[in-house]
Amino acid sequence: MKIAVIGAGYVGLVTAACLTEMGNRVVCVDAAAQKVAALKRGEMPIYEPGLEDIVVSALNAGLLDFTTSLESAVASADYVFIAVGTPMQDDGRCDTSAVLSVARALGQSLTDDAIVITKSTVPVGTGDQVESIIQERLRLRNAAFKVDVVSNPEFLKEGAAVADFMTPDRIIVGSDSQHAREMMGVLYAPYLRRNDRILYMGRREAEMTKYASNAMLAARISFMNEIAELCEHCDVDVEDVRLGMGADKRIGNAFLFPGAGYGGSCLPKDVRALIATGEDRALDMCILKSVDERNQAQKRVMFDKLYRYFDGQLEGKAIAVWGLAFKPGTDDIREAPALNLIEKLVEAGARIVAYDPVAMANTRRYFAKFPYAARVRFVDEPNAAVVGADALVVVTEWKRFRQPDFRSLKLAMRGRLIVDGRNLYHSGHLSRIGFDYRGVGRDNKGLNPPHRDRITT
Ligand SMILES: NC(=O)c1ccc[n+]([C@@H]2O[C@H](COP(=O)([O-])OP(=O)(O)OC[C@H]3O[C@@H](n4cnc5c(N)ncnc54)[C@H](O)[C@@H]3O)[C@@H](O)[C@H]2O)c1
Ligand SMILES: O=c1ccn([C@@H]2O[C@H](COP(=O)(O)OP(=O)(O)O[C@H]3O[C@H](CO)[C@@H](O)[C@H](O)[C@H]3O)[C@@H](O)[C@H]2O)c(=O)[nH]1
Hints:
By secondary structure, this protein is α/β, with parallel strands linked by helices. The protein has 18 helices and 14 strands. It has helices at residues 10-20, 33-40, 51-60, 70-74, 97-109, 126-140, 161-166, 178-188, 203-233, 238-246, 267-279, 286-298, 301-309, 337-347, 360-368, 382-386, 406-412, 427-433, and strands at residues 2-6, 25-29, 64-67, 79-82, 114-118, 147-151, 171-174, 198-201, 318-322, 351-355, 376-378, 391-394, 417-420, 436-438. It has a 6-stranded parallel β-sheet, sandwiched between helices. A 6-stranded parallel β-sheet has the order 11-10-9-12-13-14. It has a two-stranded parallel sheet with strand order 7-8. Helix 17 links the parallel strand 12 and strand 13 (417-420). Residues 445-457 have low confidence and may be disordered. Uridine-5'-diphosphate-glucose (UPG) binds at residues 121, 154-158, 214, 217, 221, 255-257, 259, 262-264, 266-267, 326-327.
């Protein structure tokens, strides 16, 4: 089948690449000429495990191409995916301008019947707008093609995007058109051989399903972060509580990890967009507002732990930061908790030595614009970051941070504080080596009551 994908970001590029895996011919369009030129050479603009191999082999097989010309890409395409960005505006609302501008271009450029699929995350009713923009343009051109506009939200997670696309939990198809539903069923059939979970619904319901899903994930995290704070005040280890709760099948283990707050380009933005959707209808989205507020507060938690430990004296302190990406497996630093932490620490006079396996280039670029950029140093090895450090903060749970040689760390560091923003370590073990341990929702005071020793993590 011939497919055009508009947008070569995380979603567009993964969609385009994974569609070629089943033999489809895909042309991926992006407005950024440099990105397109690099992709044509097989150079990835993002770090996403497994993606490069698929892109390079699809390029070599002639199944994939990249272009800046939407017009040429959509000519005779059976399916056109819209996967451009929908960033958050200053007031929290979703900026759908790129999606609508693509809709206008499609209305002018389509040359035959097509299924237009919105993969970008868009507020309820955007699909209706896309449809009327396209139909209006087609009318002006006296073009009588049958164009169905489908909502097919994407649920991939960065760092696991290829696997999520190839073996999805579910595929949501929002359209009332029988023809469009059938075409979408045909397109996705090869991805559903082991798990035939394709759900058909109305377009508006599909748009809402995407937001409600992300809001639910965010709510679980904020809920656990609140419980974690309570645990600290009750001398309770939240990790036992998390495991105990997750063992209930009705609750499950996923997305119950307390930590440094949720980041990324989706959960923060989508929660705020959903709040705005409610407010536009005079609804008080009190649960979602609390989810968002809790998350903003959570991003300060690690700083507060450092601040309290050093009695507010952070001036001149050397702080090692392990992990900059908003989660492991990606170089994406959008809304990453590490950025808030570093900014606050530097404002308080600390010096930062940071390490991340793949996100350092993006972080270096991010801080370059700040006058204090020189106070943030990057090193090539996690162990190099801790040399002479007064404290180590673990912000992202990359696997290589999970079992460090603590005795070497102890020798390399000047101070003895470890702030474990992802609860990776065993507090009793660290205390015996001589560290002061601060997790999230555990050992707030650095004390390790004897009963903690029986916990195996
Ligand atoms: N990143 C994720 O994990 C994820 C997962 C599911 C859904 N989403 C949603 O998917 C959408 C895309 O997200 P992303 O992370 O891939 O964004 P991104 O910022 O990584 O990529 C968007 C791309 O679209 C291009 N673009 C913008 N306007 C264009 C236009 N008019 N014509 C052609 N190209 C244009 C940009 O140059 C950019 O390369 C968003 O709505 C997002 O909320 C993202
Ligand atoms: O128990 C948890 C799980 C996650 N996080 C944090 O939550 C954020 C988001 O993580 P995750 O959801 O895994 O990453 P994303 O790639 O942003 O994926 C989310 O956002 C995408 C874009 O909409 C959706 O497609 C995915 O289904 C949805 O999981 C990260 O900062 C994580 O550290 C926690 O703090 N605790």
